[in-house]
Amino acid sequence: DNMFNSVGLLFLMLYMALSLLALSPFQCLESPNGTSSMSSNPTVLCDASSQYVSMATLGVCGLLAYSVLSLALVAWVTLQYPAMISSGRGCMITVRYRFLFLRFSSSC
Fold this sequence. Notes:
Elements: H1 2-23, E1 28-30, E2 36-38, H2 50-86, H3 90-96, H4 98-101
Helix pairs in contact: 1-2, 2-3
């Protein structure tokens, strides 16, 4: 359970950076000659070239595999948390999901 908590905290710390990395193929800048290229790699044009299509495909896979799946898991755990706590496994659940719920306090 402590290992699960540590890995979960690591995933939350890297969430924003990896999400932005997965979105980078879709951030294109307009060039003066009328074409657009990726802002992170100006040598790759944002058109139907095989290089851009492969990078965009990897970006979509990265978004689905990491960003959407992580967000869905956090939402599911948040919705199931009251039922898990009241099921008699409260101590185990508290340790396992400490990275989500015990970071916040009610005091000002």
